[in-house]
Specification:
The protein has about 140 residues and is mainly β. It has one domain (about 5-135). The protein has no helices and nine strands.
């Protein structure tokens, strides 16, 4: 049974696996093109759009420490691991990242600025070193 798009898991970004672009991790749809100008015709296949998974696994380990506690400013160091899958969890396909950042409990709500660095980027993965969030955390 195929899940509708709005029920699939898409990982990546500041709320799951930092260091990878938002919603960029998960199963990809393979697209193939045929080059009829060669004899015999050649078929070129590549991984393109992320189609989302029906299963996801995420692990976040964070170390929070005070920077200027009287102003609500804290630092964070983290390790993230995760991915989305269509046929069971495959630990070999889990993406990993490490990083650090700052969190401030501002008058407007929580503010997060974090730098994430992928440890095992694979071909086709989209990365994003800087993550920014304001408002309630999920």
């Amino acid at each position: 049974m195929t899940l509708p798009l709005f029920e699939r898991y898409f990982l990546g970004g500041i709320n799951s696996v930092r260091g990878f672009q938002d919603r960029s991790l998960g199963p990809r749809q393979q697209t193939c093109t045929t080059d009829n100008t060669t004899n015999p015709p050649t078929v070129n296949c590549s991984q393109s759009d992320v189609i989302g998974g029906d299963t996801a696994a995420v692990m976040n380990v964070e170390l929070l420490f005070p920077i200027m506690e009287q102003y609500g400013l804290r630092g964070v160091a983290f390790f993230d691991m995760g991915n989305a899958f269509t046929s069971g969890i495959n630990f070999g396909d889990m993406r990993r990242s490490v990083g650090a950042g700052a969190r401030w409990m501002s008058p407007f709500g929580p503010l997060r600025v974090e730098l994430g660095f992928p440890l095992n980027k694979k071909p086709g993965d989209q990365t994003s070193v800087l993550g920014f969030s304001i408002g309630a955390q999920p």
